[in-house]
Amino acid sequence: MLITRLSIPSVHGQLQALLSSPLIPQARALVCHLHPGFGGHMHNNTTYRMAKAWTLAHVAALRFNFSSVGSQATNTEEGTAELEDAQSALAFLQTQQPALPLLCSGFSFGARTALALALREPRIKRVLAVGVGVDFFDMRFVAQLKTPVAFVHAEKDEFGKLQNLQALAKQVQAPNKLFIVPQASHLFTHHMQSLEEKLAQAIAWLMACPPPLETA
Q1: 30 with 216: CB under 8 angstroms?
Q2: How many Å apart are CA 41 and CA 128, to the nearest integer?
Q3: What pTM does this model have?
Q4: What is the pLDDT of residues 134-186, one digit of tens each?
Q5: Which residues have CB under 8 Å from 80's CB, separation 6+?
Q6: Furthest-apart CA pair in the chain: how many Å?
Q7: Between β-strands 59-64 and 13-21, what pairing exists: parallel, antiparallel or unpaired?
């Protein structure tokens, strides 16, 4: 696996990024991190494991810092700036082996961003949403999603009750599946091995989800 440090231009400044690529990637995935206001960045434990899970599945993974990381004034409540950052990162990823499918993923606030980006971007063929804060953010827009999505969620997530995510998933128009990490809370503390297992299962389901992945 090759890991490359990058600086990606965005309307809000240069985005620090890491591209992890297997020898022969089958697709490319964007990885969006936890809310910057809660210490989120691309090196977050869960975000790192998402990128690792993608590469183990032969998918190149691009994780990056939102431009609001380390800033005293962020726009994370609306998420507009972060969505624009993700759009810029996706545009960069599009230039890397453009014949491969584009996928998108995120953790917590990053999951919200990934889902919103998939709604806007038809180039995105699959979405992996981890720890969706369905009780913290307005997630009703997800019902409009037509892109297949895998949800990975902690059984005892304090920012999104499991039954509320299940109710939201039932409204999604696209094929979707929920993978539950037993006994875990939002940050998956002390449950990283179980998280890695569920991430692998979710990605395998996404990659096999009919209809087959199309080229971008």
Answers
A1: no
A2: 18
A3: 0.93
A4: 999 999 999 999 999 999 999 999 999 999 999 999 999 899 999 999 999 99
A5: none
A6: 44
A7: antiparallel
